[in-house]
Amino acid sequence: MSKITKWGILGCGKIANKFAEGLEVLPVAILEAVASKTEGKAENFGKIFGVKNTYNNYEELVNNPAVDVIYVATTHNFHYKNALLCLNHGKPVLCEKPITLNAKQAEQLINTARNNNLFLMEAMWTRFIPCIVKLNEFLDEGLLGEIQHVTANFGIKKELDPKVRSFNPDLGGGALLDLGIYPISFARMIYKQPPSKIKSSAYIGKTNVDEKSCYLFEYENGQTAMLSSSHRLIMPHDASIFGTKGYLEIPHFYHPTKMILKLEGRPKKTIKIPFKSTGYNYEAMEVMQCLNTGKLESKIMPLDETLEIMKTMDILRSQWHLKYPGE
Amino acid sequence: MSKITKWGILGCGKIANKFAEGLEVLPVAILEAVASKTEGKAENFGKIFGVKNTYNNYEELVNNPAVDVIYVATTHNFHYKNALLCLNHGKPVLCEKPITLNAKQAEQLINTARNNNLFLMEAMWTRFIPCIVKLNEFLDEGLLGEIQHVTANFGIKKELDPKVRSFNPDLGGGALLDLGIYPISFARMIYKQPPSKIKSSAYIGKTNVDEKSCYLFEYENGQTAMLSSSHRLIMPHDASIFGTKGYLEIPHFYHPTKMILKLEGRPKKTIKIPFKSTGYNYEAMEVMQCLNTGKLESKIMPLDETLEIMKTMDILRSQWHLKYPGE
Fold it and tell me: Which of chain A's residues have a Cβ under 8 Å away from the Cβ of B234?
């Protein structure tokens, strides 16, 4: 793959920095242009990463003919609007997760991409991390036998502040969309199907968003997943997969560097699989490979699956009577 | 506490052996008599542990005036009948867990004990293990702040065999009563209240018992617990407690020797608290202390709590339409 891909980044926050750092280790990638609506932010970002085109608006970015693909790195309350702008200007899009606030928006984005023959992918970077690629190989080979149960938790403690996006319903706040997307997408990846029954519990805090939530998913054949996310609790970000032959523990499952394997009758074994740079480089590689081979979506993070995951999150929020303004 | 307590053990299976081994390290305990209906089993047991009175029936045991208290060590399908026999012959009882098959039986046992002014306790040995005693001290001191979430899993893989008690509904089979009692009793201990909402999923296997089940408990104030048990999956027997100030991980939570503490802004810290002998000695000590001070139940494993836990398990089974013969 020698073709150079010229990237644009829309939004210059924390995750955009990590992504740009990831691009630096990819010889086939050039960061062509960046845009932020915050005055001076794109310019500063450009200085750090040596980007020649820096814009204080998104229109110039999507109208730059040199840009091959745009990474939408804004917060999820803006994804729909921002990704739509890119698609409507003929740009392929890698969109931060969750792809939108709800399934309706996701469906509209997906339809727009498909109608315009444009690539679109949700930036679920976890799936492209080498350790997770290996995990999927293990499972496909039947290492754990038939998978029966999955657990995954994601908790980061933030100080409760109604002005902060995480706690602000007007900005799509709540732990489900911010963090719950990881365990939910992880379980979806393992079982290769959406849950057939969803049971849940959420603690809706003073600012009217989910500060903590737990989900019990049931699948066909009695398979289960117990998942949780919280903005108010420190939790180890660990996942476990239990099969008929043993189990795998995956510390920091959203960007793991090792797995602990326990097979029946054998001692525990640690399998180390480090990743390079920030880890965002692997999803970028997938995007470039798809673009270079004319694929409009990724087989590893397909759009129908992205839509299904959004539907699952819609169901969870409906169980908690949690709606965002305008829904 | 210098008074000698003379113990009887009803049932001479695996757990009776562990308990007898535990008694050996207690100078104030004498194993006075043991009984098993299996010909020769009590005699063999007596040889191993130096017990002078060995019976091939339970009647001689409960009629032996030298016996101060009886440990009912049969499987739970026999607990109600066996414990009732002891109580009706004026013997205080330490009864293996779960105390009975259901809340109705538990209530009858408890009423019998109370009406006869006899001591009765469910043998939830976990609560008396030094590491768990320390855990409760930590929580009472507010080490973790307000507890918000608890997880606990208990899985042991057994080969599916309809003749084996674990898979036989006629013998009270299923993972809930065998193993689920541990995570459920653990969560009850932590929250000091029963769940206000119970959501669950169970895989009922070919032999019509729960081979795997998951429970999502909700408590007042949005507290939660995610618990599971399985007879068909190898699982680490770990529990975690998440509070507003940090979390504690407890490997082998049903008889732990260490806790891993993670407080906000501090590195993880392992706290080692070993236990002596088989660990069953601690619950035996509690029983003897209660008997010597005229207490008819333990404050650490009170009868109302035992009954509540049985009610919780009844609710779970009713959600799965799992009834035992005669219920």
Answer: 242, 246-247, 262, 264
Nearest residue to B120 via CA among B89, B93, B81, B88: B93
Q: Do B230 and A149 touch (CB under 8 A)?
A: yes
Residue A153's contacts (CB-CB under 8 Å, 6 or more residues apart) are A183, A227, A228, A229, A235, A236, A237, A238, A239, B151
Backbone angles phi, psi at A261, to 5 degrees: -100, 130
B206 catalytic per annotation = no
Domain residue spans in chain A?
5-126+280-295, 130-274+309-319
pLDDT of res. B326: 86
Using the predicted structure, report yes or no on whether residue A1 has a pLDDT greater than 60.
Answer: no
pLDDT at B55: 98
Name B324's Cβ contacts closer than 8 Å, sequence gap at least 6: B77, B101, B102, B169, B170, B172
Q: Which of A149, A246, A262 minimises the CB distance to B228?
A: A149
What is the per-residue pLDDT for A326? 86
Average confidence (pLDDT) over B233-253: 96
Residue B58 pLDDT more than 90? Answer: yes
pLDDT digits 0-9 by tens, B258-283: 999 999 999 999 999 999 999 999 99
In CATH, what class is A130-274+309-319?
A: alpha beta
* Among B14, B18, B52, B97, the one annotated catalytic: B97
Nearest CA distance, A222 vs chain B (angstrom): 5
- Is the CATH number of domain A5-126+280-295 3.40.50.720? yes
Distance, in angstroms, between A113 CA and closest chain B CA? 38
Q: Could you count the other beta carbons within 10 Å of the beta carbon of residue B212?
A: 26
Select the residue from B198, B199, B217, B242 to test the A interface by mutation, using most A Cβ atoms within 10 A: B242
Question: Distance between CA atoms of A81 and A12, rounded to whole angstroms?
Answer: 16
pLDDT band at A2 (very low <50, low <70, confident <90, very high): low
CATH fold of the domain at B5-126+280-296:
Rossmann fold (3.40.50)
